[in-house]
């Protein structure tokens, strides 16, 4: 019996919140499968199993209630984000190792759910792209790999990769601009690019956008982070394209490429590692957009969302502290 | 009449569960075999008993006199015999006892000679004293003595707010009172408006009570009260919080630690307005109130209950179901579980909420906070509850206060929405009581230190005075001796005087030795005293804690 009021509780739970996030990822995943084959499903399965096993093991080691914590689905959300951030034709151990690292080091060594200062999925991505840059940069082209080839790539041994994989649109654009001296307009006409961004990838991004809209409608997330992130990233891209249209892709391409949509609605909005106050969320997401744009335009990595997230995670305590909203009755200084 | 309303942030919309208890009119309660009337039913000093065991009392007779001005009187709810004045369990979660007058009704229910008050011709202070002696306190649940609030603010009072919002689920006592006795509420509001010299009166009622709004409007029209208005406000818990209601009706935000009168607003519950009309028009003190009985009962409803009636006596009328496992005084959001079923109904009892495990199941096990911010969005005080939670959990009370812990009104919205099922309010209650305890401890330690320093000072002073006296004495003796010796006329007196000076010298030596002994004795006892100092006050503060928790905190 609960001893103290309130005796009424809203029927809600962490499991429900995480479940809604997983549900919201489905449209993006569906587009992914449609354009790039079943590789992503295998990766999702691998990551999920790895995450749950690592979580169970560590919960046991830490003497925490295993089934109750496993059923909060937070490990599954981390696993799915890792699978979506990693290339879907990477070897099985790549995503598995990344996931285990995320759960054990980035989550449990910091104290488990709610205590981790960094987004575990992005920690996994950062570690793996530094450790295995080549493997992390091999992506499937839309509609080019059948299921058997993908399975072979993921689960098989030798990889004859260069012939069958491609770079992401962001990577292709960067390489084209820097080493081949092409212009943005010319590159976007090329193979691998679609209606308004990467061929196939643009629809995956639309799927994540739809999922994000669902999360907003269900009040799982607030508008602050997605609007600030996409808004600032769009503005920076528009500014770049306006100043130097030959060298900078426009806002639509930027927003629908790479992990921009995934980041805006699913990664930066991670409540544990993100800012929590309304103003803080705006600053946090705007900062992440700025770092993402800088890394994309001037950095060495194919995408900047992961590093932008981690760098902004570092600033969260300060941002939260400095952006505390005024308390009732304290709005005007007395 | 369309009035511009304001909004407060946050709030929640739990199922109101009010329909069942509003079907029947307010019902009477048969006289219980015994009434246990606690002397302390309000914020402030405990009234002194005015009667003794064995004495006969009349209905409405004062049995407890206000202790100073921050207090209120208590009256016999019916005529009968005082059986005892003793400590009985009070209507408080702690299960502590309080001095209560036990009355055996004689069944005649005979009133004192009650006369209406000529209030328009009475002085303001005189009228306030009448309110105090009639035991009128805030009936919304805070039970703050009303006469203290019936004073115009420094810059006058613009708006008198009558709180008929009643936002807690299940509770309908104000709703029924407004439906059935709107005339007296309007009358009471008029008297209060007169006392406060308020320009206008706004009666705020949640829009899920259209019958009450209609009844109040009708009564206002019948009365021709042109400066009074019943306003339907959106139904959202906690719209009935005084500060939230003031915000909704006037747009004014009264900060924590400030009085609403400083902002030209004063707020009273509808029940209080009704009580004041009773005092003025009929000369009848506050001896009963409307109480909702709801929850795990067959026939939820409202009853007019005499103070001191055991809760189970009232609840039985509504048909308490078999699986009942608790009585809650108040609503499900802010109410308190009672330590027993037969605790008396007091002035703060707006609802006896009968609970069971099925109706109010224990929340799912507490999970980790994921900082989702649901609580911050629900908080009507615009706090960041999860930050308060982290700091409370870490016992980082300074930080908790920095994040405005004491602005928390314990409305329970945060705990209601928390997906991790964290009993957030419990953490804040814990933090607050820890901070209070530490402050008391610090005060006690300060007091002990002060006493210690004063004692040292006194000893020093006494020593000094003794030495001075002695020096004066010896000097006088020497002077006498030399004066005697100089002429040396005869041996006899010289011998005698030298004897005297010898005696004085011996006495001085003895006094010095005594002073030294004393100071030597004082040092070792003082040193350990210094060590004991923090421990002794801890013991006292622990003893005082329970009574303090019931009386001092609400202030």
Automatic annotation (TrEMBL), chain A:
One of its GO terms (biological process) is electron transport chain. Keywords: Cell inner membrane, Cell membrane, Electron transport, Flavoprotein, FMN, Membrane, Phosphoprotein, Translocase, Transmembrane, Transmembrane helix, Transport. The modification FMN phosphoryl threonine is found at residue 168. One of its GO terms (cellular component) is plasma membrane. Its cofactor is FMN. Its main location: membrane. It is a multi-pass membrane protein. It is found in: Cell inner membrane. Its EC number is 7.-.-.-. The complex is composed of six subunits: RnfA, RnfB, RnfC, RnfD, RnfE and RnfG. PANTHER family: ELECTRON TRANSPORT COMPLEX PROTEIN RNFD, ION-TRANSLOCATING OXIDOREDUCTASE COMPLEX SUBUNIT D. Part of a membrane-bound complex that couples electron transfer with translocation of ions across the membrane. Belongs to the NqrB/RnfD family. This is Ion-translocating oxidoreductase complex subunit D. It comes from Niveibacterium umoris.
From TrEMBL, chain B:
It comes from Niveibacterium umoris. One of its GO terms (cellular component) is plasma membrane. HAMAP family: RsxC_RnfC (MF_00461). Keywords: 4Fe-4S, Cell inner membrane, Cell membrane, Electron transport, Iron, Iron-sulfur, Membrane, Metal-binding, Repeat, Translocase, Transport. The keyword Aminoacyl-tRNA synthetase does not apply. Part of a membrane-bound complex that couples electron transfer with translocation of ions across the membrane. This is Ion-translocating oxidoreductase complex subunit C. Belongs to the 4Fe4S bacterial-type ferredoxin family. RnfC subfamily. Residues 359-389, 399-428 form the 4Fe-4S ferredoxin-type domain. The lineage of its organism: Bacteria, Pseudomonadati, Pseudomonadota, Betaproteobacteria, Rhodocyclales. Its EC number is 7.-.-.-. It is a peripheral membrane protein. Residues 461-471 have a biased composition (Basic and acidic residues).
């Amino acid at each position: 019996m609960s001893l103290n009021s309130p005796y009424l509780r809203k029927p809600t739970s962490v499991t429900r919140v995480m479940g809604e996030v997983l549900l919201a990822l489905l449209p993006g995943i569906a587009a992914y499968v449609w354009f790039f084959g079943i590789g992503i499903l295998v990766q999702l399965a691998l990551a999920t199993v790895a995450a749950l096993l690592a979580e169970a093991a560590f919960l046991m080691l830490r003497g925490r209630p295993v089934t109750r914590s496993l059923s909060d689905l937070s490990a599954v959300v981390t696993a799915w984000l890792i699978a979506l951030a990693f290339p879907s034709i990477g070897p099985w151990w790549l995503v598995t190792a990344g996931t285990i690292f995320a759960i054990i080091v980035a989550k449990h060594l910091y104290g488990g759910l709610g205590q981790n200062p960094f987004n575990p999925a992005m920690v996994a991505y950062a570690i793996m792209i530094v450790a295995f840059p080549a493997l992390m940069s091999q992506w499937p082209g839309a509609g080019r790999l059948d299921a058997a080839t993908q399975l072979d790539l993921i689960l098989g041994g030798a990889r004859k990769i260069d012939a069958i994989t491609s770079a992401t649109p962001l990577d292709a654009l960067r390489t084209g601009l820097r080493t081949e001296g092409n212009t943005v307009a010319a590159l976007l006409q090329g193979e691998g690019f679609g209606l308004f961004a990467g061929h196939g990838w643009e629809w995956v991004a639309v799927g994540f956008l739809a999922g994000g809209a669902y999360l907003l409608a269900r009040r799982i997330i607030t508008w602050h982070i997605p609007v600030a992130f996409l808004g600032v990233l769009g503005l920076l891209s528009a500014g770049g394209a306006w100043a130097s249209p030959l060298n900078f892709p426009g806002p639509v391409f930027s927003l629908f490429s790479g992990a921009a949509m995934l980041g805006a609605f699913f990664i930066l909005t991670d409540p544990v590692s993100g800012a929590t106050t309304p103003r803080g969320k705006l600053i946090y997401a705007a900062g992440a957009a700025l770092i993402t744009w800088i890394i994309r335009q001037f950095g060495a990595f194919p995408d900047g969302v992961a590093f932008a997230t981690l760098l902004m995670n570092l600033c969260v305590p300060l941002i939260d502290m400095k952006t505390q909203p005024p308390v009732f009755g304290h709005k005007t200084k007395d | 009449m369309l009035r511009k309303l304001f909004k407060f942030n946050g709030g929640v919309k739990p199922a109101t569960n009010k329909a069942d208890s509003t079907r029947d009119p307010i019902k009477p309660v048969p006289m219980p075999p015994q009434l246990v009337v606690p002397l302390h039913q309000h914020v402030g000093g405990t009234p002194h008993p005015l009667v003794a065991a064995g004495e006969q009392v009349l209905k409405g007779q004062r049995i407890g006199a206000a202790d100073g001005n921050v207090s209120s009187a208590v009256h016999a709810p019916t005529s009968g015999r005082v059986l005892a004045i003793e400590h009985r369990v009070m209507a408080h979660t702690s299960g502590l006892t309080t001095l209560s007058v036990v009355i055996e009704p004689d069944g005649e229910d005979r009133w004192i000679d009650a006369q209406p008050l000529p209030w328009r011709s009475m002085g303001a202070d005189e009228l306030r004293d009448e309110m105090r002696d009639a035991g009128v306190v805030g009936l919304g649940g805070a039970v703050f003595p009303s006469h203290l609030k019936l004073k115009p603010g420094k810059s006058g009072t613009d708006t008198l707010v009558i709180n008929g919002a009643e936002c807690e689920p299940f509770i309908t006592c104000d709703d029924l009172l407004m439906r059935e006795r709107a005339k007296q509420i309007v009358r009471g509001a008029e008297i209060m408006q007169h006392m406060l010299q308020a320009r206008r009166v706004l009666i705020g009622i949640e829009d899920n009570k259209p019958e009450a709004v209609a009844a109040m409007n009708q009564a206002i029209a019948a009365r021709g009260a042109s400066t009074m208005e019943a306003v339907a406000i959106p139904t959202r818990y906690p719209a009935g919080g005084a500060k939230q209601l003031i915000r909704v009706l006037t747009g004014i935000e009264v900060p924590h630690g400030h009085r609403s009168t400083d902002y030209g607003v004063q707020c009273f519950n509808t029940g209080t307005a009704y009580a004041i009309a009773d005092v003025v028009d009929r000369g009848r003190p506050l001896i009963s109130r409307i109480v909702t009985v709801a929850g795990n009962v067959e026939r939820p409803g409202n009853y007019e209950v005499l103070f001191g009636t055991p809760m189970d006596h009232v609840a039985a009328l509504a048909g308490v179901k078999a699986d009942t496992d608790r009585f809650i005084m108040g609503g499900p959001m802010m109410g308190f579980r009672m330590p027993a079923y037969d605790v008396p109904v007091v002035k703060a009892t707006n609802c006896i909420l009968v609970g069971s495990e099925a109706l109010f199941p224990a929340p799912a096990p507490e999970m980790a906070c994921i900082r989702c911010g649901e609580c911050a969005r629900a908080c009507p005080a615009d706090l960041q509850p999860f930050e308060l939670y982290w700091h409370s959990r870490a016992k980082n009370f300074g930080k908790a206060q920095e994040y405005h812990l004491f602005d928390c009104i314990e409305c329970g919205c945060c705990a209601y929405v928390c997906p991790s099922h964290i009993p957030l309010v419990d953490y804040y209650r814990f933090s607050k009581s820890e901070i209070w305890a530490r402050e008391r401890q610090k005060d006690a330690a300060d007091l002990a230190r002060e006493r210690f320093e004063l004692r040292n000072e006194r000893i020093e002073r006494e020593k000094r005075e003794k030495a001075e006296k002695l020096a004066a004495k010896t000097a006088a003796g020497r002077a006498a001796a030399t004066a005697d010796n100089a002429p040396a006329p005869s041996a006899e007196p010289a011998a005698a005087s030298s004897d005297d000076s010898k005696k004085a010298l011996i006495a001085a030596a003895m006094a010095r030795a005594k002073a030294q002994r004393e100071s030597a004795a004082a040092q070792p006892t003082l040193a350990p005293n210094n060590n004991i100092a923090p421990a002794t006050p801890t013991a006292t503060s622990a003893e005082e804690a329970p009574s303090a928790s019931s009386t001092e905190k609400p202030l």
